[in-house]
Input
Amino acid sequence: MNRKYRKTVIAGNWKMNMLASEIKPFMEKLAAAMPDKKACDVVLCVPGIMIPAMVREGKKCKLHAGAEDCSQFEKGAYTGEISAAQLADIGARYCITGHSERRQYHGETDMLINAKAKVLLKEGITPIICVGESLEQREMDLTMEYISYQVKAALSGITASQMRHVIIAYEPIWAIGTGKTATAQQAEEVCCEIRAVIRGIYGARTARAVSILYGGSMNAGNAKELLAQPDIDGGLIGGASLKPADFAAIVKAADQ
Ligand code: PGA
Output
C-alpha cells in the first residue's frame, strides 16, 4: 500500500452467490464487525439484480456497490445484457471487467474487456480490470509477458486522465477459489510489473496514482502480509467476501 499517492480498495466479488433477501442480515453483521471510520474504500460487487439492495444497505456502513460485469454496447438490441448507463443509474460505482471466469466461461477477449472498460469510464463507473496468468503460463515463465500484454490491451485508447479512475486487479488464475494464494513476494513482483507497464504508457505520475489490487484466495490470515507490499493497494476477494467476519477482518488489515 502507499496511501500517499493512491487509494487502498477492498472489493468483494460475490460472483453468483447469495440472494437479494440475504443482503440486509449480511450487512448488519458486517457493519457490526467493521470499523466505522475506514482508511480504505470498501466495495461489494454483486449480481446486477442485487445492486439496488446493496446501494441501500451499503450506505449504512459507507460501502459502495459494484457490478460484476456489463455490456460493451451502450444501448440497443442486446437481449439479456445490462449497460454501463443502467448500472450507473441504479448506483453502481465500480464494475469488475475481464474476470478470468468470464474469460473462461464466456469467451471474453482482451479487446472486449477494453471496450467494456471504455463504456464504464464514460458512465463514471470505475472499472476493476482483472488480469492473471494460468498455472501453465507461470510454469513456462511467461507470466510477465502475458500480464503485460493483457494490461496493454485492456488500456488501449484509455487516456491518462481516465486512467486515474481505473483499478487493475492481479488475479493469478491458479489462486482463484483454490485456497492457493500467491506468496506476498510473487504477488508484489507482478503488481510492480503492472505499475511499470502503466508507467511506460502514461508516465510516472499517473502510474503511482493507480490502485493495483491482488485477488486469489485472499483471506483474514494472509491479507496483512499481502497488503504490506508497496505495490499492492488492496484486494479483490471472492470466497472470503461471503462471510461478514472474514471480510471485515480484511478491511481491518487494510486499515493498519
Ligand atoms: P477467491 O476469488 O478470493 O475466492 O479466490 C477471487 C476472485 O475471483 O475475484
